[in-house]
Write a structure and sequence with these properties.
Structural class: alpha+beta
Order of helices and strands: HEEHEEEEHEEHE
Shape: globular
Number of domains: 1
Radius of gyration: 23 Å
Strand content: 35-45%
Number of helices: 4
Largest sheet: 6 strands, antiparallel
Distance between the termini: 99 Å
């Protein structure tokens, strides 16, 4: 019985270590919210994560890492599938340039440079004023479910790393979906021009 007890404790220890490793390679979604501006609904979200040593080595050796923030908005329907209202992806590229010894974070046309990896990650972990729904969307007076997550896009890695990702968790980094409820979403109505008719005609 004593031998069985030792084996049981060993198995539990291994399971606990595996669980800790899994949590270490996850992104946590700390906060997520929507607010209306003049022409859209914009998303704000805060994520929490660190790069494991393997991913830190990959980016330090000049291989860019692509992170994707995914958003969905849907109206739950008890009688049928949920009605998807909006969805979107925001891609961010983290890279290191050996000549300048700086990390760069690119979001669309915007590029930012940082002296350290931690400074770049601090910005990568925050999403602000991302337009996810434009003013043409029409909403019912109902509850909507918004979901958001962040993940490392493995498909953007070079082929050898993609193959390594098939057998190793070191190249995986993602969050679970963060869900929150928003009621009666209303976008501001378009502002009508107050210029008199014919003012622009010459």
């Amino acid at each position: 019985m004593r031998g069985i007890s030792h084996v049981t404790r060993f198995i539990v220890a291994l399971a606990s270590a595996a669980a800790l490793c899994a949590r270490a390679d996850e992104i946590a979604v700390r906060e997520a919210s929507l607010r209306a501006v003049d022409d859209a609904l914009v998303l704000a979200a805060d994520f929490e994560f660190e790069l494991n040593p393997r991913l830190g080595e990959v980016v330090a050796n000049g291989v860019p890492l692509y992170f994707v923030v995914e958003f969905e908005l849907a109206r739950p329907r008890w009688y049928w599938f949920d009605e998807k209202t909006a969805s979107g992806n925001l891609q961010r590229r983290l890279s290191y340039h050996a000549l300048s010894r700086q990390y760069r974070l690119s979001t669309g046309m915007l590029q930012q440079s940082f002296a350290t990896l931690e400074e770049a990650l601090n910005v990568l972990r925050r999403v602000r004023n991302w337009p996810v729904v434009d003013r043409t969307a029409i909403f019912a007076d109902s509850e909507y479910e918004a979901t958001v997550r962040m993940r490392l896009d493995i498909t953007q890695l070079p082929k050898p790393f993609q193959l390594s990702a098939l057998t190793s968790r070191e190249l995986h980094l993602e969050s679970p979906w963060k869900r929150f409820t928003v009621r009666a979403l209303q976008l501001p109505a378009p502002v009508e021009s107050r210029e008199p008719a014919g003012a622009n005609e010459r």
